[in-house]
Amino acid sequence: MKKIVCITLPLILAVLLGACGSPPAAPSVPPSAPPPSEGPGGGESSPSSLELARLMGYGINLGNTMEACDSGNRVPNREPSVYETMWGQPVTTPAMITGYKNAGFQTLRIPVAWTNAMDFENDVFTIDDAYLDRVEEIINYALDEDMYVIVNNHWDHGWWSLFSHPEPSERDRAMTVFTSMWTQIAERYKDYDHRLVFEPANEEWGHRFNDKTAFNPLPDRLDEDECYALLTELAQVFVDLVRGTGGNNADRFLLIPGYNTDVAKTVDDRFQMPADTADSKLMLSVHYYTPWSYCGDTSGVGHWGRTGEVEEMNQLLGMLTKYTDMGYGIVLGEWGVLDNEGPDRLSYFTNFLDNCDLYGYVPLLWDTGGLYDKAVCRINAPDIAELFLNRAERSLTADELIAEARLNMDWSLRKAANRPETVITADEAFAWIMFASGDWSVLYCNQDKYDPDVISAGVAASDAEVTAGAGTYTVSLDFTGTSAGFADGLVFSAVGIVNGEILFPGYYMELTEVLINGEPAVFSGLPYTTNDNPVTTRVNLYNHWVDNIPAEARVLGGDLSGATPVPLENYVDTRIETLSVTFDYIAPDESAGG
Predict the structure, then answer these.
(1) Which of 51, 59, 196, 306 sits CB 3.0–4.6 Å from 364 for a disulfide?
(2) What residue spans of 149-273 are helical by DSSP H?
(3) Using CA atoms, how far apart are residues 21 and 258, in angstroms rounded to an integer?
(4) Three-class SS state of 105
(5) CB-side exposure of 402: number of CA atoms within 13 Å?
(6) Longest CA pairwise span in the chain (Å)
């Protein structure tokens, strides 16, 4: 290993998307955007989509509250407080919302599970008034603080999976739920001014149409193109439906979720914003938890802030200017560092908010009580509290915010350059096991980027240098040194060879032995060699996100019948102390049928 050239995700994105190394130029935003209107509808003072994004400032989610639901014991139309407290949150009070405003938040996103109050399984599509009333109370708490408010339909028991149900009648039911729900919401709140924004879904518009749920036992019926097409259809239905209810909905701001709310999937040309009769009143929502290994629930990697990581954030967020250039305001509807509380969290927050200042995005922090303590109505981390409060108290024009953000981001990159990181040259190749435990608490280098510094405490990894090419190699992971002494199942694993696609194109990775806790593993299907990017060759051990065997898949002899991306699916609930994989790396001209 040498400290020369790092193969990073931004480099891969540049190859795929032609992205440049520095952030794109920030869009030109008027330094003095119009103020919120005093009355319903906004009238002549109603801002454009880009202007509204600047006005909305920084925001926060009322997480795990009105979207709480029990998919295993679904009983609609109980007292609203039963659902509101179902996931451990207290009943929301005006003081809590005042605390949000005092902490520096200008926008409140209220995720909602509307089918808590809709017995759609029995063909009753009316939302109970008590639930509409309770959501309205919380909306008013925020509006009374002169905040902006976003109301959505969240995961909501997973009813969205009906859209991919094999039975046409169930797909029709899904559309009835959708149109009935949003007709009632739009009618109920149509007299509110433009500070109230409607968002039709959360992360479900995309591959999660295919989720296996209590409503749809057959997942993955739609391919990716069909999911994009369905998203486009629903977005247009939503816009037309809301506009058709009249009142202030005729030009209300509407927030359209991107594909999976994922940045890379949303900048794909298959994602299309809907047409609209109102001028410049559509906004786009994506979420940002990159890298999940650092940001996610029970995340197992405690550091962030190396050059590649800062560049990755700047690169991905800069890609969204594709839509600001079209005139759409951008809302980062969820973001945050959910579990890590170390010193790097402040660096992550700072650089993320600087990106939002630079481009005029609206960052809405996801929080369920980890940062904002509802008992005392304030942020419980002094450094994070100071960050938000200091920024809320700034009195800067948009142009001044942009200039300050550029200086801050340059400083973040200079600071990152002083942090050590493992890098490899383009003529080196290393094999390793990508791994994430079932609870995401135990990780090792779990992306196609080879980065052995992404490792949970106590994990011992044995990687293999494969620069010589063909041969037999063994890679392994030992989890006995972790706090639990094992990895609690697995949610993802693959064997990768960084630079394999560049140095050894067409080679086969033939697994000859996989040992779990020292015992030979029994495959549920045939592993295959493939690649997810132009750099890394891989064999999936368990990757349930793969819908179909990709065109790039290859096996010795060419017979892909029985091939699967989840050959270790029998071990997803196994307590794994050790995992070892031995494979033959075979050149195409040496393979049978190659």
Answers:
(1) 59
(2) 168-188, 224-244, 263-266
(3) 24
(4) coil
(5) 15
(6) 76
Distance CA 589, CA 433 (A): 26
The token pair that represents 95 in the structure block: 């003081």
- Does residue 11 carry a pLDDT above 50? no
Angle subtended by helix axes 168-188 and 224-244, to nearest 10:
40
What would the pLDDT profile of 387-432 be if each residue is shown by its tens digit? 999 999 999 999 999 999 999 999 999 999 999 877 789 999 999 9
Q: Please tell me the predicted confidence (pLDDT) of residue 420.
A: 84
Mind giving me the DSSP string for 107-144? EEEE---GGGG--GGGT--PPPHHHHHHHHHHHHHHHH
Rounded CA gap, 107 and 101, in Å? 8
What is the DSSP annotation of 74-94? ---S--HHHHHTTTSPPPP-H
What is d(CA 541, CA 476) in angstroms, rounded to the nearest whole number? Answer: 13
Q: What is the pLDDT of residue 453?
A: 86
- Mean per-residue pLDDT of the chain: 91
Q: What is the dihedral of CA 423, 426, 431, 435, to 10 degrees?
A: 50
Count Cα neighbours of 103 within 13 Å in the Cβ-side half-sphere: 27
Amino acid identity for residue 91 in this structure: V
The two structure tokens encoding residue 533: 């990017």
Of all helices (H) and strands (E), which one includes residue 477? Answer: strand 471-478
H and E: helices and strands count for the chain? 15, 23
Q: Residue 14's pLDDT is what?
A: 38
**Residue 3: band (very low, low, confident or very high) from pLDDT cuts 50, 70, 90:** very low
pLDDT at 29 over 50: no
| 3-state SS string for 314-366 | HHHHHHCHHHHCCCCEEEEEEECCCCCCCCHHHHHHHHHHHHHHHHCCEEEEC
Stretch 148-157: mean pLDDT, rounded? 98
Q: Strand 464-465 and strand 362-365: pairing? A: unpaired
**Position 369 pLDDT exceeds 70:** yes
pLDDT score recorded for residue 447: 82
- The model's pTM is 0.84
Residue where the block lists tokens 């298959």 = 270
**Cβ distance 392 to 359 under 8 Å?**
no
379 within 8 A of 372, measured Cβ to Cβ: yes
Beta strand pairing call for 529-531 and 282-288: unpaired
Return the structure tokens found at 469: 């090419």
Of 519, 423, 432, which Cα lies nearest the Cα of 473? 432
**Across 80-89, 138-147, 320-329, 437-446, least confident range:** 437-446
Determine what percent of the chain falls in helix, strand and coil, rounding each to the nearest 5: 35, 20, 50
